[in-house]
Design a protein that fits this description.
- The complex is a heterodimer of chains A (about 170) and B (about 200).
- Chain A contains six helices and no strands.
- Chain A is globular.
- In chain A, helix 3 runs antiparallel to helix 4 and helix 5 runs antiparallel to helix 6.
- Chain A has one domain.
- Chain B is mainly α.
- Chain B has one domain.
- Chain B has eight helices and no strands.
- In chain B, helix 1 runs antiparallel to helix 3 and helix 5 packs antiparallel against helix 6.
- Chain B is globular and about 55 Å long.
- The relative contact order of chain B is 0.16.
- Classes of the chains: A mainly alpha (about 170), B mainly alpha (about 200).
- Chains A and B meet through helix 4, helix 5 and helix 6 of A and helix 6 and helix 8 of B.
């Protein structure tokens, strides 16, 4: 799994060098946390994403209210995906051992698509995108979907391995 | 023969949805609320894009058998709307096959059973419309901006990417959901009952 992750990382890094990498690691933790704890952790997620936009991306020129609204949009998207699957009686994520991984992949792709659109809207409306619109949206969408899937899969495998190790040591 | 009837039915349903959309253009107050432009523009979406719902409905009911009918109709609509040559085939293929791809994605991710379309929940339909809207918006956006640097498209100079996304995406969701619900409500009323022997 680690080897696969490294190969995918190197391959994708060589393909899409110009994009900002910090964007690609945002969706996976949001999806994991929203599947595990659902709406209970919205304030923590909001604080994390807001800090990320404000400090790491040096967005101090933009009004904080707009950054807050975008963060809210980004945070609510995976929660919305989880809730939508629960309301449509597809998957309620109550018993994690019975979760179909395809539903998790769907939430990751759904979140990355909405994240790409909202992020593009914020960045572009203030003229902060230096590259072509096609490149930006395509790479952000593909990078988030691929990295999100890999990271979530790796996280689930890590949890199961650590669970087995704990069980054996007991 | 059955195939021909299915194609004609799908062409009528989708054509009617395009006709309603065009007729709404004649109501002046709606131009500012729903359409933003007086004539159809490739970079500005309508906030009530009913045809995507109609196409989704016809694919749900008739499945793959209506590919030729839908493709011919969207081709004709593209000619009538004067879509520029650079974008013509991309927009036609995305409009014609995007909803079908959404249905296949819905089934691939095991989000529900669509074999009996009239018994599907409205929430599952909303999920399907969301997927369809995402595919339609993102693929049209990518195809519009693919040749943006060396393109000769005259629309491109006036196009605003933020306005593109902010009109296409909500418009596809609202129009798709409304269109699907209207079709599911009206279609059984036009079905003829079999004659008693």
């Amino acid at each position: 799994m680690v080897a696969l992750f490294l190969i995918a990382y190197v391959a994708i890094k060589s393909l899409f060098l110009p994009i900002d990498f910090s964007q690609w690691f945002l969706v996976a933790p949001l999806v994991i946390v929203s599947i595990l704890y659902r709406e209970k952790v919205i304030p923590a997620m909001l604080a994390a994403v807001f800090t990320k936009f404000l400090i790491l991306d040096a967005f101090s020129l933009i009004s904080p209210m707009l950054i807050f609204l975008t963060s809210l949009f980004v945070v609510l998207t995976p929660i919305l995906g989880v809730k939508l699957l629960a309301i449509a009686k597809v998957e309620n994520f109550r018993k994690l051992s019975d979760v179909d991984f395809r539903h998790v992949i769907f939430i990751i792709i759904f979140t990355s698509a909405i994240f790409a659109i909202s992020s593009f809207t914020l960045y572009s409306s203030y003229g902060l995108i230096q590259m072509n619109e096609f490149d930006y949206l395509f790479k952000l969408l593909l990078g988030n979907a691929v990295f999100g899937t890999l990271l979530v899969y790796g996280f689930i495998k890590f949890i199961s391995i650590s669970y087995i190790a704990n069980y054996l040591n007991r | 023969m059955n195939l021909l009837i299915k194609n004609i039915q799908s062409v009528l349903i989708i054509g009617l949805s395009y006709l309603i959309l065009e007729l709404l253009h004649f109501i002046p107050p709606l131009i500012g609320i729903l359409f933003f432009t007086e004539h159809a523009d490739v970079s500005v979406g309508a906030l009530l894009f009913l045809p995507i719902g109609a196409i989704l409905f016809t694919y749900l009911v008739f499945r793959e058998s209506i590919f030729p009918g839908v493709l011919i109709l969207i081709y004709v609509v593209g000619i009538l709307m004067n879509i520029s040559n650079d974008l013509f085939w991309q927009y036609t293929l995305i409009s014609a096959f995007g909803p079908y791809v959404a249905i296949r994605i819905f089934e691939f991710f095991r989000l529900g059973d669509l074999s009996k379309p009239f018994e599907v929940d409205s929430m599952k339909l909303l999920l399907l419309v969301l997927i369809s809207a995402l595919i339609n918006t993102i693929l049209k956006f990518l195809s519009f901006y693919y040749h943006s640097h060396e393109s000769t498209i005259e629309h491109w100079e006036h196009a605003d990417p933020v306005f593109f996304l902010m009109t296409f995406f909500p418009g596809d969701i609202i129009g798709g959901f409304v269109g699907v619900l209207i079709c599911f409500y009206l279609y059984p009323k036009f079905q003829t009952k079999p004659l008693a022997k």
